[in-house]
Design brief:
The complex is a heterodimer.
Chain A: E1 3-7, H1 11-22, E2 28-32, H2 35-45, E3 49-52, H3 61-71, E4 77-81, H4 86-95, E5 99-102, H5 106-131, E6 137-143, H6 149-164, H7 169-191, H8 196-201, H9 203-213, E7 224-230, E8 234-240, H10 266-274, E9 277-280, E10 286-292, H11 297-304
Parallel strand pairs in A: 1-2, 1-3, 3-4, 4-5
Antiparallel strand pairs in A: 6-7, 7-8, 8-10, 9-10
Helix pairs in contact in A: 2-3, 3-4, 6-7, 7-10
Chain B: E1 7-12, E2 15-20, H1 29-42, E3 50-54, H2 63-76, E4 82-86, H3 90-98, E5 106-108, H4 111-119
Parallel strand pairs in B: 2-3, 3-4, 4-5
Antiparallel strand pairs in B: 1-2
Helix pairs in contact in B: 1-2
The chains are: A alpha/beta, B alpha/beta.
Protein backbone atom coordinates (compact mmCIF):
# COMPACT_ATOMS: atom_id res chain seq x y z
CA UNK A 1 0.00 0.00 0.00
CA UNK A 2 1.54 3.29 -1.10
CA UNK A 3 1.42 6.22 1.32
CA UNK A 4 1.99 9.76 0.09
CA UNK A 5 2.46 12.74 2.40
CA UNK A 6 1.25 16.05 0.96
CA UNK A 7 2.79 19.13 2.53
CA UNK A 8 1.29 22.56 1.84
CA UNK A 9 0.28 25.48 4.04
CA UNK A 10 -2.75 26.23 1.82
CA UNK A 11 -5.71 23.99 2.66
CA UNK A 12 -7.19 24.14 -0.83
CA UNK A 13 -3.88 23.15 -2.43
CA UNK A 14 -3.54 20.23 -0.01
CA UNK A 15 -7.04 19.01 -0.81
CA UNK A 16 -6.51 19.38 -4.55
CA UNK A 17 -3.22 17.46 -4.51
CA UNK A 18 -4.71 14.78 -2.25
CA UNK A 19 -7.74 14.37 -4.48
CA UNK A 20 -5.62 14.03 -7.61
CA UNK A 21 -3.41 11.42 -5.93
CA UNK A 22 -6.37 9.34 -4.71
CA UNK A 23 -8.23 9.42 -8.05
CA UNK A 24 -8.22 5.85 -9.51
CA UNK A 25 -5.53 4.66 -7.09
CA UNK A 26 -5.55 2.89 -3.74
CA UNK A 27 -2.94 5.24 -2.35
CA UNK A 28 -3.22 6.52 1.20
CA UNK A 29 -2.70 10.25 1.44
CA UNK A 30 -1.53 12.01 4.60
CA UNK A 31 -1.30 15.75 5.08
CA UNK A 32 0.97 18.28 6.78
CA UNK A 33 0.78 22.08 6.88
CA UNK A 34 4.52 22.83 6.72
CA UNK A 35 7.95 21.23 6.97
CA UNK A 36 7.92 20.89 10.75
CA UNK A 37 4.52 19.24 10.72
CA UNK A 38 5.73 17.01 7.89
CA UNK A 39 8.66 15.71 9.93
CA UNK A 40 6.28 14.80 12.75
CA UNK A 41 4.06 12.89 10.30
CA UNK A 42 7.06 11.15 8.74
CA UNK A 43 8.29 9.98 12.12
CA UNK A 44 4.87 8.54 12.92
CA UNK A 45 3.84 7.05 9.59
CA UNK A 46 6.99 6.76 7.42
CA UNK A 47 5.36 7.51 4.05
CA UNK A 48 6.75 6.12 0.83
CA UNK A 49 7.07 9.53 -0.75
CA UNK A 50 6.57 13.21 0.10
CA UNK A 51 4.98 15.83 -2.17
CA UNK A 52 5.72 19.29 -0.87
CA UNK A 53 5.07 22.93 -1.54
CA UNK A 54 8.11 25.19 -1.32
CA UNK A 55 7.09 28.43 0.33
CA UNK A 56 5.69 27.62 3.74
CA UNK A 57 6.02 29.15 7.21
CA UNK A 58 8.00 27.51 10.05
CA UNK A 59 9.98 25.24 7.72
CA UNK A 60 9.91 25.68 3.96
CA UNK A 61 10.31 23.04 1.25
CA UNK A 62 14.05 23.53 0.89
CA UNK A 63 14.61 23.10 4.61
CA UNK A 64 12.39 20.02 4.59
CA UNK A 65 14.42 18.47 1.76
CA UNK A 66 17.65 19.10 3.69
CA UNK A 67 16.21 17.61 6.88
CA UNK A 68 14.95 14.53 5.06
CA UNK A 69 18.26 14.00 3.28
CA UNK A 70 19.81 13.72 6.72
CA UNK A 71 17.13 11.83 8.60
CA UNK A 72 15.23 9.91 5.95
CA UNK A 73 17.49 9.64 2.90
CA UNK A 74 15.51 6.80 1.35
CA UNK A 75 12.17 8.66 1.25
CA UNK A 76 12.05 10.68 -1.99
CA UNK A 77 10.69 14.23 -2.04
CA UNK A 78 8.86 15.74 -5.01
CA UNK A 79 8.43 19.51 -5.13
CA UNK A 80 5.31 21.39 -6.17
CA UNK A 81 6.50 24.56 -7.82
CA UNK A 82 4.64 27.76 -8.51
CA UNK A 83 5.43 31.06 -10.20
CA UNK A 84 7.99 32.84 -8.05
CA UNK A 85 9.44 29.71 -6.46
CA UNK A 86 11.77 28.78 -9.29
CA UNK A 87 14.98 29.77 -7.51
CA UNK A 88 14.19 27.89 -4.33
CA UNK A 89 13.15 24.90 -6.46
CA UNK A 90 16.56 24.79 -8.09
CA UNK A 91 18.18 24.91 -4.66
CA UNK A 92 15.93 22.14 -3.40
CA UNK A 93 16.74 19.94 -6.38
CA UNK A 94 20.42 20.55 -5.78
CA UNK A 95 19.85 19.70 -2.11
CA UNK A 96 18.41 16.31 -3.03
CA UNK A 97 14.77 16.56 -4.06
CA UNK A 98 13.92 13.79 -6.52
CA UNK A 99 11.79 15.76 -8.96
CA UNK A 100 9.29 18.58 -9.27
CA UNK A 101 5.84 19.20 -10.73
CA UNK A 102 4.47 22.70 -11.45
CA UNK A 103 1.23 23.32 -9.58
CA UNK A 104 -0.47 24.38 -12.79
CA UNK A 105 0.30 20.92 -14.27
CA UNK A 106 -0.65 18.93 -11.16
CA UNK A 107 -3.78 17.40 -12.67
CA UNK A 108 -1.93 16.13 -15.75
CA UNK A 109 1.37 15.03 -14.26
CA UNK A 110 1.35 14.35 -10.53
CA UNK A 111 0.36 10.68 -10.57
CA UNK A 112 2.79 9.79 -13.33
CA UNK A 113 5.69 11.55 -11.62
CA UNK A 114 4.92 9.95 -8.26
CA UNK A 115 4.73 6.48 -9.85
CA UNK A 116 8.03 6.97 -11.64
CA UNK A 117 9.88 8.21 -8.56
CA UNK A 118 8.40 5.47 -6.40
CA UNK A 119 9.52 2.78 -8.79
CA UNK A 120 13.11 4.04 -8.74
CA UNK A 121 12.97 4.50 -4.97
CA UNK A 122 11.79 0.95 -4.34
CA UNK A 123 14.72 -0.47 -6.25
CA UNK A 124 17.07 1.72 -4.24
CA UNK A 125 15.52 0.63 -0.95
CA UNK A 126 15.76 -3.05 -1.87
CA UNK A 127 19.39 -2.57 -2.77
CA UNK A 128 20.05 -0.75 0.52
CA UNK A 129 18.39 -3.59 2.46
CA UNK A 130 20.51 -6.14 0.67
CA UNK A 131 23.73 -4.21 1.23
CA UNK A 132 22.99 -3.97 4.95
CA UNK A 133 23.14 -7.75 4.93
CA UNK A 134 26.58 -7.86 3.33
CA UNK A 135 28.66 -10.02 5.65
CA UNK A 136 32.05 -9.96 3.99
CA UNK A 137 33.69 -8.29 1.04
CA UNK A 138 37.08 -8.73 -0.59
CA UNK A 139 38.35 -6.59 -3.42
CA UNK A 140 41.65 -6.40 -5.22
CA UNK A 141 42.84 -3.59 -7.46
CA UNK A 142 45.89 -3.16 -9.65
CA UNK A 143 46.49 0.53 -10.21
CA UNK A 144 48.78 2.18 -12.67
CA UNK A 145 50.53 5.38 -11.58
CA UNK A 146 47.50 7.63 -11.89
CA UNK A 147 46.74 9.99 -9.02
CA UNK A 148 43.11 10.20 -10.08
CA UNK A 149 42.60 6.58 -9.06
CA UNK A 150 43.63 7.12 -5.46
CA UNK A 151 40.58 9.05 -4.23
CA UNK A 152 38.37 6.63 -6.16
CA UNK A 153 39.80 3.63 -4.31
CA UNK A 154 39.42 5.45 -0.99
CA UNK A 155 35.83 6.36 -1.80
CA UNK A 156 35.07 2.76 -2.83
CA UNK A 157 36.39 1.34 0.44
CA UNK A 158 34.53 3.99 2.44
CA UNK A 159 31.26 3.10 0.68
CA UNK A 160 31.76 -0.56 1.61
CA UNK A 161 32.42 0.45 5.19
CA UNK A 162 29.12 2.35 5.18
CA UNK A 163 27.24 -0.63 3.76
CA UNK A 164 28.75 -2.98 6.33
CA UNK A 165 27.87 -0.49 9.09
CA UNK A 166 31.36 -1.07 10.36
CA UNK A 167 31.83 2.25 12.13
CA UNK A 168 30.47 5.75 12.51
CA UNK A 169 31.09 8.59 10.09
CA UNK A 170 34.15 10.17 11.79
CA UNK A 171 35.82 6.77 11.99
CA UNK A 172 35.02 6.14 8.34
CA UNK A 173 36.71 9.42 7.44
CA UNK A 174 39.77 8.54 9.52
CA UNK A 175 40.12 5.21 7.73
CA UNK A 176 39.88 7.15 4.46
CA UNK A 177 42.71 9.47 5.51
CA UNK A 178 44.93 6.55 6.54
CA UNK A 179 44.31 4.65 3.31
CA UNK A 180 44.90 7.76 1.21
CA UNK A 181 48.24 8.40 2.94
CA UNK A 182 49.30 4.80 2.31
CA UNK A 183 48.38 5.08 -1.36
CA UNK A 184 50.20 8.40 -1.76
CA UNK A 185 53.30 6.91 -0.17
CA UNK A 186 53.11 3.97 -2.57
CA UNK A 187 52.74 6.37 -5.49
CA UNK A 188 55.38 9.01 -4.74
CA UNK A 189 57.95 7.26 -2.57
CA UNK A 190 57.34 3.67 -3.64
CA UNK A 191 56.77 3.47 -7.37
CA UNK A 192 58.21 6.83 -8.42
CA UNK A 193 61.01 6.85 -5.78
CA UNK A 194 60.68 10.60 -5.20
CA UNK A 195 62.30 11.47 -1.93
CA UNK A 196 60.78 13.54 0.87
CA UNK A 197 64.15 15.26 1.16
CA UNK A 198 63.46 16.91 -2.21
CA UNK A 199 60.05 18.09 -1.03
CA UNK A 200 61.66 19.79 1.95
CA UNK A 201 63.88 21.89 -0.25
CA UNK A 202 61.82 22.41 -3.41
CA UNK A 203 58.29 21.09 -3.52
CA UNK A 204 57.72 22.18 -7.13
CA UNK A 205 60.74 20.12 -8.21
CA UNK A 206 59.33 17.22 -6.19
CA UNK A 207 56.03 17.22 -8.08
CA UNK A 208 57.73 17.87 -11.41
CA UNK A 209 60.01 14.88 -10.89
CA UNK A 210 57.01 12.75 -9.99
CA UNK A 211 55.20 13.90 -13.14
CA UNK A 212 58.22 13.08 -15.31
CA UNK A 213 58.87 9.68 -13.78
CA UNK A 214 55.24 8.65 -14.08
CA UNK A 215 55.81 8.70 -17.84
CA UNK A 216 59.31 7.16 -17.90
CA UNK A 217 60.55 3.61 -17.64
CA UNK A 218 60.88 1.74 -15.40
CA UNK A 219 58.58 3.81 -13.19
CA UNK A 220 55.66 3.93 -15.60
CA UNK A 221 55.40 0.15 -15.60
CA UNK A 222 55.14 -0.09 -11.85
CA UNK A 223 51.84 -0.77 -10.23
CA UNK A 224 50.12 -0.28 -6.88
CA UNK A 225 48.34 -3.40 -5.62
CA UNK A 226 45.47 -2.82 -3.25
CA UNK A 227 43.52 -5.44 -1.34
CA UNK A 228 40.55 -4.62 0.85
CA UNK A 229 39.08 -7.30 3.14
CA UNK A 230 36.07 -6.03 5.00
CA UNK A 231 33.68 -7.59 7.44
CA UNK A 232 31.43 -6.16 10.16
CA UNK A 233 34.27 -6.65 12.69
CA UNK A 234 37.41 -5.75 10.80
CA UNK A 235 38.60 -3.58 7.93
CA UNK A 236 41.94 -4.67 6.50
CA UNK A 237 43.69 -2.94 3.59
CA UNK A 238 46.96 -3.98 2.04
CA UNK A 239 48.82 -1.54 -0.20
CA UNK A 240 51.87 -2.77 -2.06
CA UNK A 241 53.98 -0.83 -4.53
CA UNK A 242 56.54 -2.13 -7.02
CA UNK A 243 59.39 0.03 -5.81
CA UNK A 244 62.50 -0.93 -3.87
CA UNK A 245 60.91 -0.36 -0.47
CA UNK A 246 62.15 1.60 2.54
CA UNK A 247 62.88 1.32 6.23
CA UNK A 248 59.95 2.78 8.19
CA UNK A 249 62.17 3.17 11.27
CA UNK A 250 64.20 5.78 9.40
CA UNK A 251 61.24 8.11 8.92
CA UNK A 252 61.52 11.16 11.19
CA UNK A 253 59.14 11.30 14.12
CA UNK A 254 56.54 13.84 13.08
CA UNK A 255 55.51 14.45 16.70
CA UNK A 256 58.99 15.65 17.64
CA UNK A 257 58.75 19.46 17.83
CA UNK A 258 62.02 19.67 15.93
CA UNK A 259 60.29 18.02 12.96
CA UNK A 260 57.04 19.91 13.13
CA UNK A 261 57.66 21.89 9.96
CA UNK A 262 59.19 19.04 7.96
CA UNK A 263 56.89 17.36 5.42
CA UNK A 264 58.11 13.81 6.00
CA UNK A 265 56.56 11.47 8.50
CA UNK A 266 53.13 13.10 8.79
CA UNK A 267 51.47 10.57 6.52
CA UNK A 268 52.84 7.67 8.53
CA UNK A 269 51.79 9.39 11.73
CA UNK A 270 48.21 9.69 10.49
CA UNK A 271 48.16 6.05 9.37
CA UNK A 272 49.46 4.81 12.73
CA UNK A 273 47.09 6.96 14.72
CA UNK A 274 43.92 6.33 12.75
CA UNK A 275 44.32 2.57 12.36
CA UNK A 276 44.61 -0.06 15.11
CA UNK A 277 47.51 -1.75 13.39
CA UNK A 278 50.01 -0.71 10.72
CA UNK A 279 52.61 -3.23 9.69
CA UNK A 280 55.16 -3.24 6.91
CA UNK A 281 56.72 -6.20 5.19
CA UNK A 282 60.50 -6.69 5.50
CA UNK A 283 61.17 -4.91 2.24
CA UNK A 284 59.06 -1.91 3.19
CA UNK A 285 57.06 -1.86 -0.04
CA UNK A 286 53.88 -3.28 1.45
CA UNK A 287 51.80 -1.91 4.29
CA UNK A 288 48.86 -3.57 5.99
CA UNK A 289 46.33 -1.32 7.70
CA UNK A 290 43.90 -2.85 10.16
CA UNK A 291 40.94 -1.29 11.88
CA UNK A 292 38.80 -3.32 14.23
CA UNK A 293 35.24 -2.49 15.03
CA UNK A 294 34.86 -0.76 18.37
CA UNK A 295 32.51 -2.59 20.66
CA UNK A 296 29.44 -0.73 21.81
CA UNK A 297 29.30 -0.08 25.56
CA UNK A 298 26.50 -2.60 26.10
CA UNK A 299 28.48 -5.33 24.30
CA UNK A 300 31.47 -4.75 26.56
CA UNK A 301 29.23 -4.82 29.64
CA UNK A 302 27.65 -8.13 28.55
CA UNK A 303 31.04 -9.72 28.08
CA UNK A 304 32.25 -8.48 31.45
CA UNK A 305 29.23 -10.07 33.14
CA UNK B 1 36.92 13.84 -12.25
CA UNK B 2 37.35 17.46 -13.28
CA UNK B 3 39.79 19.78 -11.56
CA UNK B 4 38.29 21.67 -8.61
CA UNK B 5 39.62 25.00 -7.56
CA UNK B 6 41.41 24.34 -4.24
CA UNK B 7 40.29 27.50 -2.42
CA UNK B 8 38.60 30.86 -2.73
CA UNK B 9 40.06 34.09 -1.43
CA UNK B 10 38.48 37.02 0.30
CA UNK B 11 39.58 39.76 2.64
CA UNK B 12 38.32 41.32 5.79
CA UNK B 13 40.34 44.48 6.12
CA UNK B 14 43.91 43.25 6.74
CA UNK B 15 42.93 39.62 7.17
CA UNK B 16 43.16 37.20 4.26
CA UNK B 17 40.57 34.42 4.23
CA UNK B 18 41.21 31.14 2.40
CA UNK B 19 38.10 29.00 2.14
CA UNK B 20 39.14 25.49 1.11
CA UNK B 21 36.89 24.13 -1.62
CA UNK B 22 35.37 20.69 -1.90
CA UNK B 23 37.38 17.59 -1.43
CA UNK B 24 40.86 19.01 -1.12
CA UNK B 25 42.98 15.93 -1.01
CA UNK B 26 45.59 13.97 -2.82
CA UNK B 27 44.35 14.65 -6.32
CA UNK B 28 44.81 18.37 -5.91
CA UNK B 29 48.03 18.26 -3.93
CA UNK B 30 50.25 19.55 -6.72
CA UNK B 31 47.54 21.98 -7.86
CA UNK B 32 46.97 23.15 -4.31
CA UNK B 33 50.63 23.89 -3.71
CA UNK B 34 50.85 25.55 -7.13
CA UNK B 35 47.96 27.83 -6.25
CA UNK B 36 49.50 28.55 -2.86
CA UNK B 37 52.74 29.53 -4.57
CA UNK B 38 50.80 31.89 -6.84
CA UNK B 39 49.08 33.31 -3.76
CA UNK B 40 52.38 33.82 -2.00
CA UNK B 41 53.75 35.66 -5.03
CA UNK B 42 50.76 37.80 -5.89
CA UNK B 43 49.37 38.95 -2.57
CA UNK B 44 50.74 42.16 -1.11
CA UNK B 45 51.72 40.72 2.24
CA UNK B 46 52.57 44.15 3.60
CA UNK B 47 48.84 44.73 3.78
CA UNK B 48 48.09 41.46 5.60
CA UNK B 49 48.28 41.00 9.35
CA UNK B 50 46.63 37.62 9.57
CA UNK B 51 45.24 34.67 7.66
CA UNK B 52 42.15 32.57 8.24
CA UNK B 53 41.82 29.09 6.70
CA UNK B 54 38.20 27.96 6.60
CA UNK B 55 37.56 24.20 6.45
CA UNK B 56 33.75 24.43 6.27
CA UNK B 57 33.59 22.54 2.96
CA UNK B 58 36.21 19.93 3.84
CA UNK B 59 35.34 16.79 5.79
CA UNK B 60 38.84 15.41 5.93
CA UNK B 61 42.25 16.08 4.49
CA UNK B 62 45.73 14.67 4.58
CA UNK B 63 49.29 15.76 5.02
CA UNK B 64 49.40 17.63 1.71
CA UNK B 65 46.88 20.20 2.90
CA UNK B 66 48.89 20.70 6.09
CA UNK B 67 51.89 21.31 3.90
CA UNK B 68 50.05 23.96 1.92
CA UNK B 69 48.88 25.83 5.03
CA UNK B 70 52.36 25.63 6.50
CA UNK B 71 53.69 27.49 3.47
CA UNK B 72 51.26 30.32 4.08
CA UNK B 73 52.17 30.32 7.78
CA UNK B 74 55.86 30.54 6.90
CA UNK B 75 55.13 33.65 4.88
CA UNK B 76 52.95 35.48 7.36
CA UNK B 77 54.47 34.43 10.69
CA UNK B 78 58.02 35.85 10.39
CA UNK B 79 56.51 39.33 10.01
CA UNK B 80 54.47 38.85 13.18
CA UNK B 81 51.30 37.77 11.41
CA UNK B 82 48.78 35.33 12.82
CA UNK B 83 47.02 32.29 11.33
CA UNK B 84 43.78 30.79 12.55
CA UNK B 85 41.80 27.84 11.22
CA UNK B 86 38.05 27.40 11.59
CA UNK B 87 35.07 25.15 10.93
CA UNK B 88 37.07 21.96 11.29
CA UNK B 89 35.23 18.66 11.43
CA UNK B 90 35.99 16.30 14.34
CA UNK B 91 38.37 14.38 12.10
CA UNK B 92 39.99 17.63 11.00
CA UNK B 93 40.60 18.59 14.63
CA UNK B 94 42.15 15.17 15.23
CA UNK B 95 44.49 15.64 12.28
CA UNK B 96 45.59 19.05 13.47
CA UNK B 97 46.08 17.79 17.00
CA UNK B 98 48.00 14.67 15.95
CA UNK B 99 50.31 16.62 13.72
CA UNK B 100 50.68 19.20 16.51
CA UNK B 101 49.85 22.05 14.21
CA UNK B 102 47.34 23.19 16.79
CA UNK B 103 50.40 24.38 18.71
CA UNK B 104 51.16 26.74 15.83
CA UNK B 105 47.70 27.74 14.61
CA UNK B 106 44.70 28.66 16.72
CA UNK B 107 41.53 26.70 16.11
CA UNK B 108 38.23 28.58 16.08
CA UNK B 109 34.67 27.31 15.87
CA UNK B 110 33.55 29.91 13.36
CA UNK B 111 34.96 32.15 10.67
CA UNK B 112 34.01 35.22 12.68
CA UNK B 113 35.96 34.00 15.69
CA UNK B 114 38.91 33.06 13.48
CA UNK B 115 38.95 36.52 11.91
CA UNK B 116 39.08 38.11 15.37
CA UNK B 117 42.02 35.86 16.28
CA UNK B 118 43.80 36.71 13.03
CA UNK B 119 43.29 40.40 13.73
CA UNK B 120 44.79 39.98 17.15
CA UNK B 121 41.60 41.08 18.88
Amino acid sequence: MTTVLVVDDAATDRQLAGGLLKADTDWTVLYAVDGKDALREIELHVPDIVLTDLQMPEMNGLELVAAMKKGYPLIPVVLMTAKGSEEIAVQALQAGAASYVPKRSLADEVQEIIRRILSASREERSYARLMHRLSRHESSFVLENDLALIPSVVHYVQQLITQLRFCDEPERLRIGVALEEALLNAYYHGNLEVSSALRETDHMAYYELARQRAAEEPYCNRRIYVEARLSPTEALCIVRDSGPGFDPSEVPDATDPANLERPCGRGLLLMRTFMDEVRFNDMGNEVTLVKRRQKEAHESDSEAN
Amino acid sequence: MGSEKPFTLSRDDRTLILALEGKVGSLNAADLLSEVDVLLDEVNWDGIDGVVVDFADVDYFGSEVLEAILRVWNRVHPAGGRLAVCNLSDVGRDILSLSRFDTLWQVADSREAAVQIAKGA
